[in-house]
Each structure stands twice: as C-alpha cells, then as structure tokens.
Amino acid sequence: MSLGGRTAVVTGAAQGLGEAIARALHARGASVVVADVNDERAEAVATSLPERARAAHVDVRDRASFERLLDESGRVDVLVNNAARTVFRPLWEIEADEWDDVLATNLRGVFFGCQVAGPRMREQGWGRILNMASISGQAAGASGAHYAASKAGIIVLTKILAAELAPYGVTCNALAPAAVRTPVFDDLPEERLEALRQRIPVGRFGEPAEIAELAAFLCSEEAGYITGATFDANGGLLMR
Ligand SMILES: NC(=O)c1ccc[n+]([C@@H]2O[C@H](COP(=O)([O-])OP(=O)(O)OC[C@H]3O[C@@H](n4cnc5c(N)ncnc54)[C@H](O)[C@@H]3O)[C@@H](O)[C@H]2O)c1
Fold this sequence. Notes:
This protein has helices at residues 16-27, 39-48, 63-73, 96-124, 145-165, 190-199, 208-218; strands at residues 7-11, 31-36, 53-57, 78-81, 127-132, 170-177, 230-233. The protein is an alpha/beta fold.
C-alpha cells in the first residue's frame, strides 16, 4: 500500500480526522499538504511530520482559494475533502445564515474540490478523491439538519464524479464515519456522550486512526477498482 512519490492534499487537516488521515498517507510515503483555514494548527501538524509535509491555507468555501491551493501543490494525486463544520442544533433553531455557511463549507467545498481537482487528475490519468461523508447523511440522527443534508449531498456528488472520472484512472469514494472522538464532541455534555456510546454496538467511540487506515487504503494504488462507493465506519450504528 505504498504512496511513495504521490502528493496528497487533505483539507481540514489541522486536527481530528483530517490530521489522522494526513498522518496515515504520510506514513505510506506520500508527500502531504496539510490544508486548513486554521493556519497555526495546520503548521503545527505539518512541522510534527518528518519531511514531505507542508501546511497550506485554504478556505474551502472559496473556489479561488481551492484553485490557489492546488496550483501551489504541483501535481496532486490524492485529494481528501475532509474540511467541515459540524453543528448539533435542533431543526427548528437553525437560522438561514448558519444553514448557508454549513452547506457552503461542507457541500459546496467538496464540490469545488472535485471540480478543481477532477480535470487535473483526469489529465494525469491517475487520481484518488475521497470525500468525508457521515452516518448523518444516511439516517436521521443527533446532528443538525444542515450538516446532515450536506453529508447526504456529498454521497450523491461522489457518485456523479466517480462516473465522470472512472475511465481515466481516477476514483472517487465517500467515507461515512460515526462517533469518532475528535474535537467536535468536546462541547457535548458527558450524559449525551454516554447515551450515544450505549447505542453503538461495538460499545465505544471510534479512534481517528481507525478511520484513517480505511481512508489511506481508498487512496492507494490497490483501491483502483473501487469507485462511487460509500464506506461505513460506524461501530455498527447503522447496518445496511
Ligand atoms: N468525528 C466524527 O465522529 C465524524 C463523524 C462523521 C463524519 N465526520 C466527518 O469527518 C470530517 C472530519 O471531522 P472531525 O471530527 O475531524 O472535524 P473537526 O471539526 O475536528 O475538524 C474539521 C477541520 O476542518 C477545518 N475547516 C473548517 N472549515 C473550513 C474551511 N472553510 N476551510 C478549510 N478548513 C476548514 C477546521 O479548521 C478543522 O481543522 C468532517 O467532514 C466530518 O463531517 C466526522
């Protein structure tokens, strides 16, 4: 599963799953671009990796920012569209501004990533695009309706892109985790976390590294026959 000689751009890689995925790709030999809107944390992640890593600024809501990121990164073989805003809010309390910003970050951001990177990878004749979806895009749950709608959108967007790029050696897949301990859960009260944990068949939250291993496989040479798929990594919370 070597990614030696490949360049991988991971958005939202300054913490959480994005950071774990950047580390897993790096461990397989890829040069990684730790891209995030949070420059300070992205720099800290990049400098903690020995060689083959650099931080880059991106605001995924902005197409020009995405284009700059890819221009500066040279040949990009792997793009992981991971950046997102996770918001837990009851349906009735979501204001229009928040709806728009969550959709702009989570869904329009992935659209821009696919639209900018797709043709470049097609030209190269090789590429891997991995879009971070969520169990929230597959079933009703605790997250906000805006977050859930963005993740459902990512799943079908992934299929459309996969069909476009399949003949050119470029795959596009989605990964749908649930309940992985990252900073998004830091503000939830302990009782709510415990109630969620009790519903998970494997009896615990997931670890970022467990998601990152699957992500790295989907970005590898060996995953060339897998495209348009959504992979569940949810501790058995949703079996379909
Ligand atoms: N943690 C989970 O249990 C879980 C479950 C399902 C899906 N996911 C998905 O996995 C991905 C990572 O989740 P996480 O828990 O690590 O999230 P996180 O909030 O810890 O990290 C998200 C990162 O994205 C960055 N970001 C936010 N807006 C951005 C923007 N406009 N441009 C560039 N970067 C931006 C943030 O700065 C942050 O570093 C997300 O797509 C999330 O929806 C996570």
